[in-house]
Structure formats: structure tokens, C-alpha cells
Design a protein that fits this description.
about 375 residues; mainly alpha; 16 helices; about 5% strand; globular
Length: about 375
């Protein structure tokens, strides 16, 4: 069950302690909390390169499977599995973008681009939007744009068509559409100045790079279809469209459950946000059965990642355990079930910043009032 009792806490730094911090004690300063994880931030080049090569080989084999298997259902299964591997590769790229994958800054930038290219993600644009905006201001309305909830007044002011789209996004069935439109198309694929306040040549070249990869990917499938006498539409659909759409659904779901929960608070006041220890209080540790979290490179051990982005993905599980041992009762821990997920989607439609709670589309509260940090 989620541990959602979040007392109002100051960021005063107590003396460093070897034991757990009690709920009635002030929240330790972030530097103190990060010091607990410092022994787990060692990065290993050989392991990092090996993981990337392994995931790329599996991805390539699955794409080949969409070509060589004659049955449509076998092609579809390979396409879906390839989409999952795009997600795994992206998580590696995400680590490299944080400079937490290997000890070498230049190598991280190279490996990050190699890992992110199947998701058609421009490395430099993700680096700015994710590292600077999302991690710098997690769940601060007006800055962090990832799954940022609207207020009742903002929702009512939308056009009818846009209100329908918001309802789809927040239905529980809309992560793929949300990420495809709001994140990739508007903010990653040659974004307008409205969505990216600054322009750099690197942004353009990364956009050209992923566009060229997409063109070569599709062209290769077309060539394979002609060479083997198969349907062009079938191969492009199974070998490109299906993996790309699955990847969008996967990443849309992941970023949604990382920071959306009835116990997670959003803020519209920067001072109150800073006092709420957002590096801990705005993030969910979602636990899956059958060690599914390991298949996702432990990205669901997300509190540890937000506390210290230098911890590599292959040490996040240990880092998360350390945090939960040292901060009992303060970290939101949720066991995953589809029932919980759709219940969250039903309750977390809009956010009331005055009452500090989630609401439905009619503005009726659906969660307990969060603590005040003013």
C-alpha cells in the first residue's frame, strides 16, 4: 500500500546519522540524503557497453523477425517485442543523458545517441527538456510540463476538441497518444519556439539525424518487402509502425505512473514546492510482480533516481532500498495492479492548487488534501 502520510517538513540539515530518520524529525537536506547513495554511484564502462550491445542485438533480431516470419501474428509479436526493446534502449540513453551510465562524458553522449535512435529521440532536446526542466522542477506547475494537470478553470477554458483530447489522455488508455503528440511531436521533433525557448544548431542536427534514421529504417523494410515478395504495407506496419507506437505507449505509461498518484502533490508556488522536498515527495516507487522492474532496467526505482541522478541504472535497486530504509514512511511505494492504475486514472483528472488535491473533471475532490508547505 502507498505510504502517503507526508508531514510538513523543512529542509534543515540535521546531523548525519547512520540509522533511519523518524517521521517526526525534519527531512534531511538533499546533500545528506545523497551522501547515503554516494557509494552506489560508481559507474562501470564494460557493463554499460555490454548492456547496450545486448539490447541492440535483441532489438535488431526482433526487427528481422518481422521480415522473416511468414505468419502475420509472428510478425506482430516481434514488432511488439521490438517496441519493448526500444523502451529498454531508451532507458539506457536516459542514463547516458544524465552522465550516469559510464564514467566518461564523451562516451555517454555517443552511447546515449546510439541508444535513443530507435525511439527517434533527439538526444540534445531530451537532455534540455528532461534534465533541466523535469528534474530541476519536478511537479512545479508552469515549469515541469510532463503530465502537468490542468485546473478546473483551465480545463473549462479549452476548446471542445481539446477537452475531448484531455479526457482521452487522462482516461488510462491515452499514454501512447499523449506521448506521441505532447512530448515527441511538439517537443522533440523540430519543436517550435513555443515549446523550446532556445534554439541551438545541435537541436537541428539531432533532429536531422533521427529523421534520416527513420527514413533508412522504412526504406530498408520496403526493400526487404520487394526482395522477398511480401506486402510493403505489412512489413512497414509490423517492422516500424507497431514498434514505434508500442514504444510511445510504454514511455507514456512510465512517465505517467512515475509522478501521478493520489498521494503525489503538484505545486504552483515555487517556495512551497521547495519546502516540500520534491526530490522525494513527488515521485512514486512502483513495484511490479515477477521482477518486471528488472526488465525495465529498474527505472521504476524512481525516487532514488530523482534524489541522485548520478546513480547508474544497474545500481538503482540498491539505492532505492537504501532510501526506503533511511526514510521510512516518507516515500510513496505502490504495488502495481491494473485496478490501481485505472483507479488512479479515474481520480487524477485535474488538480486544485488551492485545496491541494486531485479532482475529477467536474472539480470534485478525489484525493485527500495534501500538507501545506507555505
Amino acid at each position: 500500500m502507498p505510504q502517503s502520510s507526508m508531514p510538513a517538513e523543512s529542509l534543515q540539515s540535521p546531523a548525519v546519522t547512520e540509522g533511519p530518520v523518524s517521521l517526526d524529525a525534519p527531512m534531511p537536506h538533499r546533500k545528506v540524503i545523497r551522501s547515503w547513495l554516494t557509494p552506489l554511484s560508481e559507474r562501470r564502462t564494460a557493463m554499460a557497453v555490454g548492456l547496450l550491445v545486448l539490447d541492440w542485438v535483441i532489438f535488431a533480431v526482433l526487427i528481422a523477425g518481422t521480415i522473416v516470419f511468414p505468419a502475420w501474428w509472428a510478425k506482430l509479436l516481434c514488432g511488439l517485442a521490438a517496441g519493448f526493446m526500444i523502451g529498454r534502449l531508451f532507458i539506457i540513453g536516459h542514463d547516458a543523458c544524465h552522465q550516469s551510465y559510464t564514467p566518461h562524458r564523451g562516451l555517454n553522449r555517443i552511447l546515449g545517441r546510439i541508444a535513443m535512435v530507435p525511439s527517434l529521440t533527439p538526444y540534445s532536446l531530451w537532455e534540455v527538456g528532461h534534465n533541466v526542466v523535469h528534474h530541476g522542477y519536478t511537479n512545479l506547475k508552469g515549469v515541469d510540463f510532463v503530465w502537468a494537470p490542468l485546473t478546473k478553470e483551465e480545463f473549462d477554458a479549452l476548446s471542445p476538441g481539446r477537452r475531448v483530447l484531455e479526457r482521452i489522455y487522462r482516461s488510462g488508455w491515452g499514454p501512447a497518444l499523449y506521448y506521441l503528440i505532447e512530448m515527441w511531436w511538439l517537443r522533440m521533433f523540430f519543436p517550435r519556439k513555443t515549446y523550446m525557448g532556445t534554439r541551438r544548431p545541435e537541436f537541428v542536427w539531432d533532429g536531422v539525424f533521427v529523421s534520416a534514421v527513420a527514413a533508412l529504417w522504412v526504406a530498408g523494410l520496403v526493400w526487404a518487402a520487394v526482395a522477398t515478395g511480401q506486402s510493403v504495407w505489412m512489413l512497414v506496419g509490423m517492422g516500424f509502425v507497431v514498434p514505434f507506437l508500442f514504444w510511445n505507449a510504454m514511455i507514456g505509461f512510465v512517465v505517467y505512473v512515475h509522478h501521478t498518484h493520489t498521494s503525489v502533490q503538484w505545486h504552483d508556488d515555487k517556495q512551497a514546492w521547495a519546502k516540500a522536498a520534491p526530490f522525494v515527495s513527488t515521485t512514486v516507487h512502483l513495484q511490479f510482480p515477477w521482477k518486471v522492474g528488472g526488465l525495465l532496467h529498474h527505472i521504476m526505482e524512481h525516487t532514488a533516481h530523482h534524489v541522485d541522478m548520478s546513480v547508474p541504472l544497474y545500481k538503482l535497486k540498491a539505492a532505492q532500498k537504501k532510501l526506503e530504509d533511511m526514510l521510512p514512511g516518507r516515500i510513496i511505494i505502490q504495488r502495481f495492479s491494473w485496478r490501481w492504475y485505472f483507479e488512479t486514472a479515474r481520480k487524477c483528472k485535474l488538480y486544485d492548487f488551492t485545496r491541494r488535491c486531485w479532482t475529477d473533471f467536474q472539480g470534485r475532490p478525489t484525493s485527500a488534501q495534501a500538507p501545506s508547505y507555505a
